[in-house]
Amino acid sequence: MKKIFLAFILLSITASTYAQNNGEDDLGAWYMLFTNNRVSEKLSIHAEVQYRNYEFADNFNQLLLRTALNYHISDKAMASFGYGFISTDPTFEDPNGEENISEHRIYQQFVLRNSVGKLKFSHRYRLEQRFIDNPLSGNDTQHRARYFLRLTYPLSDKWFLTAYDEVFINLQNEFFGQNRLYGALGYNISKNLSTQVGYLKNDFRVDTFDRFQIAFFLKTDLRKKKKEDS
After folding, report:
1. Which residues, if any, are the signal sequence (predicted)?
2. Cβ of 163: how many Cβ atoms within 10 Å?
């Protein structure tokens, strides 16, 4: 009985140490800027920067830079082809001499939008080809599919509520990758600039991480300048 009790204590300490080391018990933060730049009636350019920490204001986790060319099929449908660069520190604690994992990512996506009354829906279907350089395990190529569903409800002309769920599906090895559940309060600063402050629960196969998020969304329209110059 004593051996079982000691084994249980040892297992609890080990699990606690692991949770602390991977940052699962800490509230991390994602700071994000998304831009959409309309260049013609059918084309726009997307660009974004995301800076992610294991802890609220410290302990770097990931830098994500992404861009895409969007083709606007209609006001409710859009297709995109894009590229992303991602630098990731995979460990909560920083060993001396550790090198980050770098990833070059190509992706294709299709977005559909619709509404029911005041409630707006956005569906995003994305395929990714990931070229990963891990200093410890070498180069690897992976493929992934993602489905994203967002709901947005206006509270007034300025304030709104938004929520989304996104599931990640691996197209090799283990099927389930991760799931992200998000809710936020948004504010329209102007016609072309808005911000969201929210909370994300990021579930992986084993771990679950809680993340505070603050994001800014900026829209520009180069078509207006062309009209003014003509």
Report:
1. 1-19
2. 14
Tell me if 90 sits within 8 A of 107, measured CB to CB. no
Cβ pair 101, 133 in contact under 8 A: yes
Q: What is the pLDDT of residues 177-186, one digit of tens each?
A: 999 999 999 9
Q: For residue 118, which phi and psi values (nearest 5 degrees)?
A: -85, -15
Domain membership of residue 9 (yes or no) is no
CATH number (domain holding residue 222) = 2.40.160.40
- CB neighbours of 82 closer than 8 A, spacing ≥ 6? 46, 66, 67, 68, 69, 106, 107, 108, 109
56-103 pLDDT tens trace: 998 999 999 999 999 999 999 999 999 999 999 988 887 666 789 999
Determine, yes or no, domain membership for 213. Answer: yes
Range of the domain at 143: 28-229
